[in-house]
Design brief:
The longest helix is centred in the first third of the chain and has 34 residues, at 62-95. The two termini are 13 Å apart. The chain has one domain (17-248). α2 (31-54) packs parallel to α5 (109-138), α3 (62-95) packs antiparallel against α7 (174-186) and α3 (62-95) runs antiparallel to α9 (201-213). Mean pLDDT is 85; it is low at 1-14. It has helices spanning 17-27, 31-54, 62-95, 99-104, 109-138, 143-170, 174-186, 194-198, 201-213, 224-248. Helices cover 75% and strands 0% of the residues. The chain has 252 residues and is an all-alpha fold.
């Protein structure tokens, strides 16, 4: 029954992208992930509060708040949160064989790939935005900085959602490979030059935050237009790769 050719059911009853997204989100297991994620966001708020209490009478400078957001949210919380949610949405379903039932249905492969990316994004972005807002507010950031932090966190999750959904569909133990990408590439290799930096989602989310708040940006940063477009391109390319993987291979 299984085939490596893309299925193109055009009947009215063919599953919509949002229906597939909902199915993937409902099938995801591990409520402990949500509890730990919220606890981590609260912990970030505590860090911001400590920094604010230790500041002098003038308060915490915006540059320091942006540094906290960049270090703790955009390069740590957002990618790890997206990776954990991708493991729940795609990785676990692949490992236990559940994903094969969706793969065998007459659903266009691009719909399944888009649904996987959307499911990871919908589950991770609100948590990352919450963490960014809590940290910015607790550290004493103004309204503009809080809004910029929310935008940057959401944009980061969009790029990571595409990448980690693709990993979940393409390989087993996607959680391990995702950690390798976050720690080695974004944390180390991405700092070696302009080209590696352009292949790191954090470059774009950090540039977006610093540009919107008019604070010093990363040495390998990008302009505002690319800061907005970068995460979208990451999601599009990764989703296209996921669709190709679904067409060419099996998920069982």
């Amino acid at each position: 029954m299984a085939t490596t050719r893309e299925q193109t059911d055009t009947r009215p009853g063919a599953a919509s992208v949002w229906l597939l997204t909902t199915v993937l989100m409902r099938a995801a297991r591990g409520r402990w992930r949500l509890v730990l994620s919220i606890a981590a966001a609260v912990a970030l708020g505590a860090v911001g509060l400590v920094v604010r209490l230790r500041a002098d009478a003038t308060g915490v400078p915006d540059e320091q708040v942006v540094t906290l957001l960049t270090t703790l949210v955009l390069t740590l919380y957002a990618p790890l949160m997206s990776l954990v949610q991708a493991a729940a949405v795609v990785g676990d379903l692949r490992d236990d064989g559940t994903l094969v039932y969706l793969w065998l249905r007459p659903v266009p492969r691009w719909k399944l790939a888009v649904a996987a990316t959307l499911a990871v994004f919908v589950r991770s972005a609100p948590l990352a935005v919450l963490a960014a807002v809590v940290l910015a507010v607790s550290a004493g950031g103004g309204p503009l900085l809080v809004v910029a932090a929310a935008y940057a966190a959401g944009a980061a999750c969009l790029g990571y959602a595409g990448l980690f959904a693709f990993l979940g569909l393409a390989v087993r133990r996607a959680l391990v490979w995702g950690l390798v990408y976050v720690v080695l590439w974004e944390g180390l290799v991405g700092t070696f030059g302009a080209l590696p930096a352009k292949l790191a989602v954090s470059t774009y989310s950090t540039s977006l935050l610093t540009t919107l708040t008019d604070t010093p940006g990363p040495s390998q940063g990008v302009g505002l237009a690319w800061a907005w477009a970068g995460p979208v391109l990451f999601a599009l390319v990764a989703t296209t790769a996921a669709r190709w993987r679904l067409v060419r291979g099996e998920v069982a």
